[in-house]
Amino acid sequence: MKIHEYQSRQILADARIPVPPGEVVESVEQAVAAYRRIQRASPQGSGRVVVKAQTFAGGRGKAGFVKLCDGEAQVAQAARFMLSNRMVSKQTGPAGVTVRKLLLASAVDIDHEYYVGLVVDRARSCPVMMVSRQGGVEIEETAARDPQAIVKQWLHPHLGLQPFQATRLAYELGFTQKEPLGAVSQILLKLAEVFGRCDASLAEINPLVRTKDGQILAIDAKMTLDDNALFRHPELAEMRDLSEENPNELRAKEHDLSYIALDGNIGCLVNGAGLAMATMDIIKLYGGEPANFLDVGGSVTREGATEAFRIILADPKVRGVLVNIFGGIAKCDTIAAALIAAAQEVGFRVPVVVRLEGTNVQQARQMLQKADIPGLIPADDLTDAARKVCSAAV
Ligand code: GDP
Ligand code: MN
Questions:
Q1: Is the pTM of this model over 0.85?
Q2: Distance CA 319, CA 268 (A)
Q3: ω before 207 within 30° of 0 (cis)?
Q4: What residues pack around ion ligand 2 (CB closer than 5 A)?
Q5: C-alpha of residue 61 to centroid of ligand 1, in Å
Q6: Which of 2, 50, 74 to mutate to test the pocket of ligand 1 (most atoms within 8 A of CB)?
Q7: Checking CA distances to 22, which of 233, 259, 323, 388 falls within 20 to 30 Å?
Q8: 10-residue mean pLDDT series, the chain (394 residues)
């Protein structure tokens, strides 16, 4: 589960990592009011604030959705721009995303930007902390061009980041004096502690900055939480922002279907994750592009299959569907009944190629033949099915 920057900042602030104060708003008027409150709270401050779009996608700075503002007029202008234009960044795809919330935070005078992040290293089965002196909006390019610029320490799965590791990383960041070496090490230890305690799969501060007056502050924060551990964290589960998630993926989750929307035009309905991957591969082999990954599960029911069809056909990009079922626990005749029901309830607006194999396949084929569903194309095997759906979906 992804959460917003302002939520991640709160988690960091609660762990006593220094974060500049800020407020979340949803309209231009609220932005101006928040700006006035921030001014009143620190009358001796610079008066400058930063207005930041709250989206799960990163790359906001380069997209023009992080703006430094002096005065009410600039705040209003930045807020109006961000709330009325879709944000297109490297991470959003060409269609971009709608911005519904903004964070207003006191701006800081930056002397240097550092990168600090934790992810799970699947190959080594433990978390890894990565730091770089070259933090900021170019971190991806830096990592690709100059991997040496990223320094890593792997964490013991139970003991977490050790103080000597934190000191070494802070030293690698260029902090060689006792202060702020100590302050930076403390921030790294706290971040690692938060990562473990929240069951995060990603926790990132980019940039962690040294200000002109020598403070160390986190001015951007990103966290992803492990869905499978959310039951242990009801207070974190409440942070879920449904408006930022794909509505079809949410619907699928409600029906225990594993569904991930993709960019192609061939919808896939498959039982079993491995078979779903193989189905996507063979579609690509025959020149098609899958519109989704969809695993209806080993013991698919008529209701589940019908809902799966609804979700696939709700995607306007879909020009053809490939149903690929291996009847093991699920029996082919159950699937055939589900297909017939789905055809009646949902209606097939595009060609649906069906490949069934396994338990009770003969009965299933007879049922489908008898039902004579318009748009349904039977296939002999997976290769035949992939060819047929690729030529039908044009
Ligand atoms: P991202 O592009 O989505 O990662 O958004 P960030 O929050 O990291 O902001 C992008 C960039 O804006 C940072 O790398 C900074 O260079 C700049 N920035 C953000 N906040 C401030 C601030 O308070 N003061 C100054 N001077 N620059 C800031
Ligand atoms: Mn950032």
A1: no
A2: 11
A3: yes
A4: 206, 220
A5: 6
A6: 50
A7: 233
A8: 97 97 97 95 85 96 97 97 96 90 96 98 97 94 94 96 98 93 97 97 98 96 96 96 86 87 93 93 96 84 84 91 89 86 87 94 94 92 96 89
